[in-house]
Design brief:
Length: about 325
């Protein structure tokens, strides 16, 4: 299959035929979206379009349909196999938790912008959809990401899974009825994070489609596109650093030196190039900590000390001071609100 790479951040185009189909179903005319550069001839599941075009398409789709829950509705409309190889990576996994870990791992093949990660323990599993863009991710895209993951989770397990908690960074819509109908569990808006928390029992569910041989084949097929996506480095350096921190913080001790080494450059070069982009390692690290803190505090089974340790704070008091600076609240007040 032929893929199309362009300069700058890109998004795999697989979802946009479904976005266009939903718009045509709701209002009959999706021509403003079809006329966007790159959407006139989407040539297969590996085709890619610029991030700016993807964002414009979602915004146009919401405007044309006047549908505040379009992200949820498009996710519901996806046919079996719509996610191509990544879907089969999930379906062939041994458990739902393992499948969602693969979904997060291979998510960077889908988008240069989104950095998904899994935080799992014996009490639950959290899917965090991080954003490495410089502007706010459109709310329909955030809702589509979590709704698509839940739709897939329900489909591959055969159970009507209800999340323990769903949180979105954007403000609450005027009408929440469709969000409540689909997610069924508690939903929090203006939470500063896009996160879905599943129970440990649901994460441990065995998948009827588990197939070790197929799983290995799919893994080999996806590692190539993943390596190519990482190697092309189409995203800015600040976005690549942010993605690395979003994906690895809590699993390894991250410093400017270790990140520079992973990016095959000196710390001085890292500092200089980030400065040319108008930022710094410290600023990016602080922003990622803030986003992950909000996400982790959704999981009430984690103590505030656990969250502080995860975020590489030497003591809870330092985390409390940072959280007050980010939100104007203590971690406990934020968790209780």
């Amino acid at each position: 299959m032929r893929s199309r790479r362009r300069d700058g951040p890109t998004v795999q185009a697989w979802a946009f035929p479904h976005v266009i189909a939903w718009v045509e179903r709701e209002c009959g005319d999706a021509s403003p979206i079809r006329r966007l550069p790159g959407l006139d001839a989407i040539d297969g599941p590996d085709a890619r379009i610029p991030e700016a075009i993807a964002d414009a398409a979602w915004r146009l789709a919401e405007t044309l349909t006047r549908d505040e829950a379009i992200g949820v509705h498009v996710a519901e409309s996806l046919p079996r196999g719509g996610l191509d190889l990544i879907e089969y990576a999930v379906r062939s996994s041994a458990s739902l938790g393992a499948g969602l870990e693969r979904l997060a791992h291979y998510g960077r093949v889908l988008s240069d912008r989104v950095a998904a990660r899994i935080d799992a323990n014996d009490r639950g599993l959290g899917l965090i959809v991080g954003d490495v863009g410089t502007s706010a991710l459109h709310h329909a895209r955030a809702e589509f990401a979590l709704a698509m993951a839940l739709r897939l989770a329900r489909d591959v397990t055969g159970f009507e899974i209800v999340p323990v908690q769903v949180a979105f960074a954007h403000d609450r819509p005027k009408d929440m009825s469709e969000h409540r109908r689909f997610f069924r569990g508690p939903i929090r808006f203006a939470a500063g994070t896009n996160t879905m928390l599943l129970s440990a029992a649901d994460a441990a569910r065995a998948l009827p489609g588990a197939d070790a041989a197929l799983s290995a084949i799919v893994h080999r097929r996806l590692e190539g596109p993943l390596s190519n996506t990482v190697a092309t480095g189409s995203a800015s350096l600040s976005a690549r650093v942010r993605r690395m921190l979003m994906e690895d913080l809590g699993q390894a001790t991250l410093t400017a030196d270790s990140v520079a080494k992973a990016l095959a450059m000196s710390r001085r070069t890292l500092t200089r190039q980030l400065g040319e982009e108008g930022t710094s390692f410290r600023a990016i690290f602080d922003a990622v900590r803030a986003e992950l803190a909000r996400a982790l505090l959704q999981d009430r089974s984690l103590s505030i000390a656990d969250v502080a340790f995860f975020l590489q704070y030497s003591e809870p008091a330092a985390f409390h001071r940072s959280f007050r600076r980010w939100t104007g609240q203590t971690p406990q007040t934020y968790r209780s609100s």
